[in-house]
Structures are given as C-alpha cells and as structure tokens.
Prior knowledge:
Elements: H1 2-7, H2 9-21, H3 30-48, H4 54-78, H5 84-96
Helix pairs in contact: 2-3, 3-4
Amino acid sequence: MSSSIITQAVERASCVIKATELARPLLSFPELLDRENALRKALAGQVQARTMSLLERNVQIQKLYSQLLEEARSRQSAAPADAGKPLLAVAQWRQSNPESCGRLGGDAGTCY
C-alpha cells in the first residue's frame, strides 16, 4: 500500500488541491491555502521522486499547519469581529481531520 501512495503522490496531492480550491472563496486569508497547496505539491513531488519519506512529508505538513493556524489567528485578532466566521469553519475542518489525515491519502474515509 505504501508503494502505491508513493507512486501516486503527485496525483493524490493534485486531487486534494483541487478539492480545497472549492473552499478558497470562503476563506478570510486564501493566500494561506495557497501556501499550503504549494507545499503539498512540492512535497508530493519529492515523495514520488523518493527524495523524501512519507514520514518527513508528514512532519513538514504538520509544521506548516501549525504555522498557518497561528498566522490566521494573529491576523484574525487584528481583523474586524465579523471576519471570524470563515476562520472558524477552517479551524473546525482542521480539527476534524486529525494528524493521520495529513498523510498522503489519509487513512480514514473522512480525510480530505
């Protein structure tokens, strides 16, 4: 199974990127999603080329998630109060997709 995840890493990342683009217009800070998707694509290429392990990829994605959430919170605290609704939806989505969903392909039916 791990082998097919590796050989299809770019294809899987492209699928996730396409799916997350649907949420982009709803986000307060869509450029944060752009950063996430750019890293997702770059890491998938490295995994598929076997220059990076899945574990290393997972660590990098988790680091970015933490940075992006912190940056969004920081920006949100400086933004008007009504701008928080999309951020809340994104935070809830992140919380509903645990660390295991950060892996290529996830490991549950609810990972996106």
